[in-house]
Each structure stands twice: as C-alpha cells, then as structure tokens.
Amino acid sequence: MKNKKRSSIKRKITRHVIVALVITVTVMTVIDLIYLSRRIIEQQETKLELATQMSAQEVEDWVRDMAIVTEDMASTLTAIADLNEATVRAVVDRVALNHPEFFYVYFADYHGNMTMARGIDFKSTGMDPRERGWYKKAAKYGHTVVIDPYASATRPDVMMVTVATPVYWGTTMIGVVAVDADIESIQEFMNTIDFEEGSYGFLLDSQDNIIVHPNSQYNPTSEAIVSAVEVMPELEEVLDSKDEFITAPDYTGTEMVYSVTKLHDSGWTVAVAYPRKGFLSHVDRGIRISLFVALVCALLAVGDITYTVRKVLKPLDKINPAMDRIMEGDFSTPIDFATADDEIGDLQNKLAMSLAELSDIIHIQQHVLSEMEQGNLAVADMDEFPGEMNDISMSVNSIKARFNDMISDIQFSAINLQSFAMGINETDDIEEIKAIFEELSAEANALMEKTSRFTTMPTTIRF
User: Fold this and answer.
1) Cβ contacts of residue 415 below 8 Å, gap of 6+?
2) Domain presence at residue 352
3) 42 located within any domain
4) Which domain CATH number covers 241?
5) Which of 443, 399, 398 is nearest to 418 (CA)?
6) Which domain holds residue 356?
7) Gap between the Cα atoms of 345 and 455, Å rounded
8) Which of the residues 86, 123, 166, 195 has the least number of beta carbons within 10 Å of its own beta carbon?
9) Residues 425 and 337 in one domain
10) Does a structural domain hold residue 417?
11) 87 lies in a domain?
C-alpha cells in the first residue's frame, strides 16, 4: 500500500487561500471588465453624440445667421412701406456691404420685380422670380424658410443655399427677401470633423440628398444632386432608425457607428461616423489595463498571504521536535515555540501547563510507589486529579489500601499462629490440638480468599 503524500498545514492553508483569492479576483475582474466595457462604450458614444451636436449646432448657427439677416431685411422693408426700386436697392446693398460672405442678397416683389445687390441684373436671365423655389416656399409657409442646395440661375457653376423670408404689409405679403451662400463654406467645416482618428461628418438636405460628404464625388454639383440612400443603401437603416447610435458599414465597407441628428429649421440631417474598431480599441485598452492591474494586485496579495501564513504558522515547525521528545518520556522539554500573544501562544501555554501537571502526577505516583516498595504503606494517598487522570490516583490509592489490608491480615495471622503454636506446646489434649489446627486452617482459608483475586506469575520449582 502506497503512502499518500503528506501535505503540510501551511501548504493547505496557502493553497485554499490562494484559490479563494484567485476566484474572488477573477469574479471581480470579470464584473469590473463588463462594467468597464459598458462605461467605455458609453463614454465613446457620449463623445460621438457631443461631436454630432456640436457639428449640428455649427450648421444651425450658419443657417440661423442667414435667417437673422433676411428677417432684419424684411422688418426694414415692412417699416419703410415703400417698394421703390431705389429704396429697396439701398436696403439690399447695405446688407450685402455688411455681409460679404453672402453670394447674393436680393428682394422680389409680388409683381415679379427683382432687385439684387452689387448691381447684378436678374432681368437678363429672363426668369420670373416668383417661379423660383425659394419664392414659392416662403410664400407658401409664410415664414423664414431654408432652401436645399441648388444651382444658381445667375451662376450655374455654384451650388447655393438660400434662406428666404416673406415681407408683409399688414397681412398682405408683398414680396420675399433672400440671401444666398455658397455651400463651400459649410463643406469646409464638415470636412474638419475628426474628433477621433477615422471619424468624419456628412450633411444631408431635407430630401436626404448629400450636401457634404468625405467622398467628393457624392457632393452636389450643377449637373447632379446625389441621393444618399442611392449611393449608400446602408444609410437607409441609419436614417430610418430612432436609436441614438446605429452600427452599419459605410461607403468604404468599414463598420462605423453613426450618430445622427435632424435640424429643426432646415430639416437637414447632420451625421457623424466613427469606426467601430475605434470603440473596440478603447475597450480593449481598458480591458488590458484592468487585467494588468488585477494581475499585479493578485500577485501582491498572493505574496503577502504566503509570507503571512509562513510567519503565523512558523511556530508549528518547532512543535514536532518538542512532541517527539515528549513521546520519548522527556516531560521536562521546554515549550517555547511561540512568542506572539495569539491562538498559537495560547496553545503553547496550555500545552506547557498540561505537561507540568502530567509531570507532577508522575512524580507523585513515583513517590507513593517507591514508599510502598520500601514497605511504607502509611504513605499519604494521592490527591484527586482532573479528568481521566484521576483514575491513576484512584488506582494507586486502591492498591495501597489492599496491600495494607493484606499485610495487616498476614501480621494478624502470624500472631495467631504464634499463639496456636504456644498453645500446642502447652497441651497434650488431642481434641484441643485438633481445634487449634481447625482454627489455623480457617485463618489460612481467609487469607487465601483475600489473595485469590490477584493473578500471580507461575513459580518454577527446582529440585
């Protein structure tokens, strides 16, 4: 039968503590990684949403600045209440002078008369301004409107965005003022969106046609205006979804996370796309950092636990040698394996007290038996001892008492024997001698009865 490999208490405690620590650290790390991953993704989504909102605000401000100009022009013309061409031209020229960023500044009345700033002659185009989209839309809705990008009648090579405001005298609309801006300025801004590596922004009009996109081939020209869904079908899910963030491939096939917001006044859509791998890279970096920290903490904890267990249980190394000497009968072995005031120190003190008590019992027993061996049966009885050790004192005291009784009986029988012998010498009466021998026989039987309970070694008789 093979002996099982013996495992020390230090190894057992260390192993169990390390296993418990590893399980605890593992569970906590998994929970922390799940929570951390979610938090990192939430932070990235927040950054993406913030970039989208900032971009939308920039576009909104750009459109709103144009609307403020047209509304001020409309208020001025309403206040003047004069549609004389000179008066109107003075208003539009002043606006054009103060806002050189606008391509065109103009006013068209309900008679079809068109007055444009900077001396531009609209009549040469042969078009009726009342048939233009900006005029019709402003007249239809009765408030400031934003016109999606289109090719200008006077400059077909330039894509314009128009903001138009109807002019009223009382409740009668007498015309529409408008300003045009080249979309190049807003294109330049949208192309600067790069809040994270690989991210970009794009802008769609109210009909989901592309106004600005990183792929310049999609940007509107006088020849064509591109529908976003036609060239990028994957955007249909993004535009139709009500979720804040949508993951879908972009025009290059790269998985992107989209954040989309719709502008209230213009109905335009501002979107920012961020590579999904960018999200995952932040999560991956967070996971690596967390795992590294968890590993370092686990190693430090294991080292500290191992050192502590060895230090706390070091006194146990001295117990076995001490117990070996005690098993050999050396009850004077000093018990000093522990110095700390803890449970092991208490164990040492109690073991030392037990050995001292046992040593006292042995010495007392040795003294009593030695006195009995020398014939002193009058030696004092052993005191009562605690627990099962009291059986020793009771047994020794019982043996002493029985020997004392037997010796007393033997001594008494010897005295009787002397008396009977003297009686025999003094009489010749057979009957009296017979009675004496009967008494001697009874005395011997009584003595044999008392000693019969003892088992003796067989005696070898030699001849």
Assistant:
1) none
2) yes
3) no
4) 3.30.450.20
5) 443
6) 331-455
7) 48
8) 86
9) yes
10) yes
11) no
Of the residues 215, 245, 278, the one at which a domain ends: 278
Residue matched to tokens 């690596």? 288
- Kindly provide the b/e burial profile for residues 320-354, where b requires at least 16 CB atoms within 10 angstroms of the residue's own CB: eebeeebeeeebebebebbeeeeebeebbeebeee
Measured between alpha carbons, how far is 75 from 168 in angstroms, rounded to an integer?
A: 9
CA–CA dist 234, 228 (Å, integer)? 9
Q: What is the pLDDT along the chain (463 residues), one digit of tens a residue?
A: 444 556 666 677 777 777 877 787 777 777 776 766 777 677 777 777 888 888 888 888 888 999 999 999 999 999 998 889 899 999 999 999 999 989 899 999 999 999 999 888 887 777 899 998 899 999 999 999 999 988 776 677 788 899 999 999 999 999 999 999 888 878 777 777 666 677 888 889 989 999 888 888 888 887 888 898 888 887 787 787 766 678 888 888 888 888 888 888 888 998 888 888 776 666 677 677 777 777 787 778 778 777 777 777 666 666 777 777 777 777 666 666 556 566 766 777 777 777 777 777 777 877 877 877 777 777 787 777 777 777 777 887 787 777 777 777 776 766 766 676 666 666 666 776 677 677 767 766 776 666 666 555 565 545 4
Q: Phi-psi category of 133—alpha, beta or left, where left has phi over 0 and alpha has psi -120 to 50?
A: alpha
3-state secondary structure (DSSP) of residue 346 = helix
| CA distance readout (Å), 394 to 58, 370, 375 | 105, 17, 20
